[in-house]
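Dear H.,

Thanks for agreeing to be a second pair of eyes. The structure we're designing against is below in token form, covering all 368 positions.
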């Protein structure tokens, strides 16, 4: 960091002998007296400069910290990955799949400037760590790739159909949905390691020490966890679980009542150790995400689909927008999500289109 005060040159006035007399303004000074005065003045100046420098340095550090791009420890949040990972944030850049077109991988600054195409692959389960973006190419048999954040050096890492990708440290964790299997592979490629040997596990949510997932046992869909080395598979004592994510010490999930075809659901949370199961909201709910103290989720009230939010303690239920929203990704102050748009003859079941809005529901706009 550039120093604001250059103090490389210092007068060493103490420890020197002075013998000549000096007359100034009618008063007699010795060189030693003058030296002492200069020394005291210098000390005072140094104190003032030091204080000013420390204040300026402090402000400069703060300003620099705002300008220095943050480097992700994890490639994306578990909530975004659960929702298809169509958006991720690092520093002041948002990386997203432009679902309104063909899902091409773009980046854009959080203020909406400098929109840049990185590659034309249909990117899902996007992770960003340092100089690399990791993703699955939906139109390319879900193969696992990485590419530089400037759009160069696209690299094939695995030909596996990789879902629910999460990058942590030197490892990429992913699932093969059709197999009900969870693997990990080094970030520079190499041999994959099977973590779920002998089990059918799906919707993995990878944290530092544990993978939280759904164990399909006689169609019961049991909530469980397994260590990231593939050991200690543990049931968390709830079933009929569809969709989950982890935020802090809590697991959030949607529980279907009676059976999976029934529309009645509960939005629940439970401690990662399996205690304190709590129902946060009852209703016809679907995709959800958690950011900070808020749960963002799809809900249907009186046959009207809506994007809503509620505090993690179950208070302050708020409707953000009406529509059939899906893939709810939260990046900073923005929500990126898809919405069904009808009227196109090619898409009789509706066409997914990408929208974004602020987390308070304002600035709702199409991402094109």
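And this is the sequence the design step returned. I haven't edited it by hand at all.
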């Amino acid at each position: 960091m550039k120093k604001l005060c250059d103090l490389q040159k210092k007068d060493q006035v103490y420890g020197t002998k002075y013998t000549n007399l000096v007359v100034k303004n009618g008063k007699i000074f010795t060189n030693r007296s003058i030296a002492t005065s200069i020394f005291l003045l210098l000390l005072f100046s140094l104190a003032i400069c030091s204080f000013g420098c420390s204040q300026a340095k402090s402000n400069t550090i703060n300003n620099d910290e705002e300008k220095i791009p943050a480097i992700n420890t994890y490639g994306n949040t578990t909530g975004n990955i659960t929702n298809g990972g169509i958006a991720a944030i690092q520093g002041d850049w948002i990386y997203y799949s432009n679902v309104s077109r063909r899902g091409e991988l773009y980046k854009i600054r959080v203020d909406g400037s400098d929109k840049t195409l990185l590659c034309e692959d249909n990117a899902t389960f996007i992770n960003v760590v340092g100089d690399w973006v990791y993703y699955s190419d939906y139109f390319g048999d879900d193969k696992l790739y990485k590419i530089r954040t400037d759009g160069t050096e696209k690299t094939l890492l695995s030909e596996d159909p990789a879902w629910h990708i999460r990058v942590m440290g030197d490892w990429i964790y992913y699932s093969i949905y059709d197999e009900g299997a969870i693997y990990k592979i080094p970030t520079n490629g190499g041999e994959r390691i099977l973590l779920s040997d002998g089990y059918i596990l799906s919707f993995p949510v990878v944290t530092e020490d544990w993978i939280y997932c759904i164990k399909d046992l006689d169609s019961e869909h049991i909530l469980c966890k397994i260590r990231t080395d593939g050991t200690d598979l543990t049931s968390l004592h709830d079933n009929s679980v569809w969709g989950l994510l982890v935020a802090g010490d809590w697991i959030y999930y949607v529980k279907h009542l009676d059976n999976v075809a029934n529309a009645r659901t509960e939005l629940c949370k439970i401690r990662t150790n399996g205690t304190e199961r709590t129902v946060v909201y009852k209703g016809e709910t679907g995709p959800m995400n958690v950011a900070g103290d808020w749960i963002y989720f799809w809900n249907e009230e009186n046959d009207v689909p809506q994007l809503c939010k509620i505090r993690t303690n179950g208070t302050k239920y708020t409707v953000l927008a009406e529509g059939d929203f899906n893939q709810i990704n939260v990046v900073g102050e923005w929500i990126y999500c898809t919405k069904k748009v009808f009227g196109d003859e090619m898409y009789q079941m509706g066409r997914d289109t990408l929208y974004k809005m602020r987390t308070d529901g304002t600035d709702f706009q199409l991402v094109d």
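Two observations from my side: DSSP finds two helices and 29 strands in the chain. The longest helix spans residues 31-67.

Warmly,
E.
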